[in-house]
Input
Amino acid sequence: MERQDLFTVAFFTKRLADLCLRSGLSGLPRDEISRHVLFTSMVAALPLETPIDQQQVDACVARWIETSGIKELDHVTLRRSLVDAGYLVRRPDGSGYRVVADPPERPRCEAGVADVDLASVLQARREEVARRKAEYLARAQP
Output
C-alpha cells in the first residue's frame, strides 16, 4: 500500500471497511497504514486525554473486535499493541491508561476521522454490497 500522509474521512472509512469485510484479515495487518487505520478506529470510542482504567480499555477493545469481525485478535494483545504504537499511554503504576491525541508516527487525520463509527461504516458497506448485488442480479435476469 502506498504511503498515506493524511487520513481523509473517505480514505479512512474505505480502508476500514475493506480491512474488516473484504480482506479476510486474521490478526493485525503487516502494513503500517492498515494498522494505523485499525488503531485509530479502536481508540475513537475512548475519551481523549482522560484517565481510563484497564477494564474500560479492555471492554472497548473487546467490543471493537466483536464488531470488526477480524479473526485471531484478543483484547490483551491489542491493548499492548495500542501502547506500543503510542495510541495509549500506560500510567507508571499500571493503574490506568490515557488516549494520546496525536500519536507519533501516525499519519495526520482530517477532521471527522475521529468521529467515524466502525459499526456504522460496516453497516453502510454491507448495504452497499447488497444493493450492488441486487442491481447486478436484476440486470442479469432475462
